[in-house]
Design a protein that fits this description.
By secondary structure, this protein is an alpha+beta fold. Helices cover about 35% and strands about 15% of the residues. It has a single domain, classed as Arc Repressor Mutant, subunit A, CATH 1.10.10.10. Helix 2 packs across helix 4 and helix 3 packs across helix 4. The structure holds zinc ion (3 copies).
Amino acid sequence: MCHQCNYEEMLLSSDLEVTENRLHVLEVIGNNSFPLSAGDVFQTLKRNSSINKVTVYRILELLVDHNLVVCLNSFGKSAYYGMAPNDNHLPHPHFFCKKCGRIDCLNPNSLNVDSSSLWKTFPGQIDGIEIRVDGICKDCIK
Ligand SMILES: [Zn+2]
Ligand SMILES: [Zn+2]
Ligand SMILES: [Zn+2]
């Protein structure tokens, strides 16, 4: 859970107009403790608003373009969305359960990957690093 991010300020500092829908999408992603698919974001938002799915997709794309949200592509069919690293959200690995498909955000300190030398020495352009830890979650192991 995160109550530290000021979503309005995040939009403004990315030169984005603050709209109710954009704020809601950021809020849902920022307050969640695991990454969400576009469908998940939509299901959560439609309980309290009349937002449609196309709008959700469009806003997610915009937020990814402006580096407020990251799109995680390594979890099968759907893309999943999480907060882009910022002062309140440090880069972290994700755990993927091979049985139920659940994805969890792991503690940023749980796996120490020092990528700074890679960023400095890689001859091309790096846009992001996704670290996926595979296994079976505690519920599936029971
Ligand atoms: Zn936050
Ligand atoms: Zn599982
Ligand atoms: Zn995460």
